[in-house]
Amino acid sequence: MEVRKDDFRVHLITGTFFVCIVAGGTCLCLYIFLPGAQHTSWYPIAGFILVGIPWLFWLLTYCYRCFKTGFQYIQEERKFAKGFNHVAPNAAASSPATTTAQTESQANSSGSERRVHFGAVIVVGEDGDISHGEADNNADSREP
């Protein structure tokens, strides 16, 4: 945000809005305080237009930001849907063995083997029993 403070465009837009508001306020004050014979009919029209320019700018900026965010969300959804639909038929058509082989071949494409070794599985039952791995997996063999 620090970069925008020194940006010339910010000062230009702020100055333009200031001039519009002062000129519009001047036109409206002239219409109100000058006698009916001295003022012209364009003072209130010019005053409202000049005062309304900054309001219109901020309203359009707000709408742009809202719609931009919505459109970006829709575009990301479409990109995701395209990618998902593109991958889904290939995954559904291949068997698990083929998928595993493809994954391993992609992982090992650099020439080095990658293997992951996990430690023993420890399962804690509802009653606090601790079983280690598949040897104690049979619930009938355990004594209460």
From TrEMBL:
<keyword id="KW-0812">Transmembrane</keyword>
<feature type="transmembrane region" description="Helical">
    <location>
        <begin position="12"/>
        <end position="33"/>
    </location>
</feature>
<feature type="compositionally biased region" description="Low complexity">
    <location>
        <begin position="92"/>
        <end position="110"/>
    </location>
</feature>
<protein>
    <recommendedName>
        <fullName>Membrane lipoprotein</fullName>
    </recommendedName>
</protein>
<keyword id="KW-0472">Membrane</keyword>
<feature type="region of interest" description="Disordered">
    <location>
        <begin position="92"/>
        <end position="113"/>
    </location>
</feature>
<feature type="transmembrane region" description="Helical">
    <location>
        <begin position="45"/>
        <end position="64"/>
    </location>
</feature>
<keyword id="KW-1133">Transmembrane helix</keyword>
